[in-house]
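Below is a concrete protein record.
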Amino acid sequence: MSVVAADVLRARDAVCDVARRTPVLESEALSERCGVRVLLKAENLQRTGSFKLRGALNKLASLGTGCERGVVAGSAGNHAWALADAARARGVPCEVFMPAQAPIAKIDGCAALGALVHLGGDSLEECFAAAAARAQEGGLAFVHPFDDPDVVAGQGTIGLELLEDVEDVAKVVVPVGGGGLASGLAIAVKSARPDVEVVGVQAEACAPFAESLRRGQPVAVSSRLSIADGIAVKRPGELTLGLIAQWLDDVVAVGEDEVAEAMVLLMERSKLVVEGAGAVGVAALLEGLVAPARHGTTVVVLSGGNVDAGLLAAVTRRHETQVGRRLVLFTRVPDRPGSLAGLLACVAGAGANLVEVEHVREGVDLHVRETAVQLVLEIRGREHAQQVLDAVAGDGYVAQILD
């Protein structure tokens, strides 16, 4: 099995009537930080919220009548959602197997498109195995999320769009999970423009490609819980490993905190909601793990935007705390009417906005007639935090900042 540029060109016809041609957007924030022009390929704005729809559509086209009884896949979410949408567009039944802890948005998205969703297992590998067994049992067509030439070729249509939309593209930074997106894109871009660099980015919590490339064969690695769950693939595919080795210039890995900060920057500065897996390329640029092109334009692929609201809120809160916009104060007040009101008046007088207040009476060494209070405050920065602390101390409260 292999994939060549002609396969990607043929895939465009199978994809274009359903998949959107996603925009390439200017990123002033990244361009300023990097000192060169940086653009964002916004596949997070694709139907079903990720690039995966392209590969799913091309696979169904290649199956033809072979998928009349239905299709089935194992996926952390994005591939399942994309296959459900492609199957509905082509009028075929769809079943998907997803981990028990898959994001709720992705589970609901699949179900809303008419797919039969099976939840269970702790890993993608277990879901793959369950989906393959279901395919054999029910005569369904199994659609692999990345280790399939038709899927790879479908994902490569992103590269064709980049060549047409960015005349001076010099470097492309792309997320790497199983390798289907990165290899397909690289084939499309470098077949036409061998001088363009393509760099893949993995999540450090699950990064099998370095060792696999060193050994020349797929090697499974242990993985940790990752904010970039969409690319947390423990073992590269046979096909995609060879393609990555042949076509990509480099593969790097980025940490969890860096990915979280990239998500916030994209939301605040570009007004784009991007999931962890989709933000790894931006994180790699911000951390200097990938240098932007010195001449020409660097394009970062935002591969998906399917993130649960709860996780997005947690990432935002963490960022606000780190940059000094959120302050958690712990202090004690007399346990009598009006005491808390006095503390809150002091905080308000210092210009802080109260987000949350909690009485803490358990697990703290307190006098019988006092209570502990924890305040979560919105502030304007670290200097303002000190002003709030000074105001509280000036009114006689002994307060400490909690991390």
About this structure: The chain has three domains: 5-50+150-316, 52-143, 324-402. The mean pLDDT is 93.
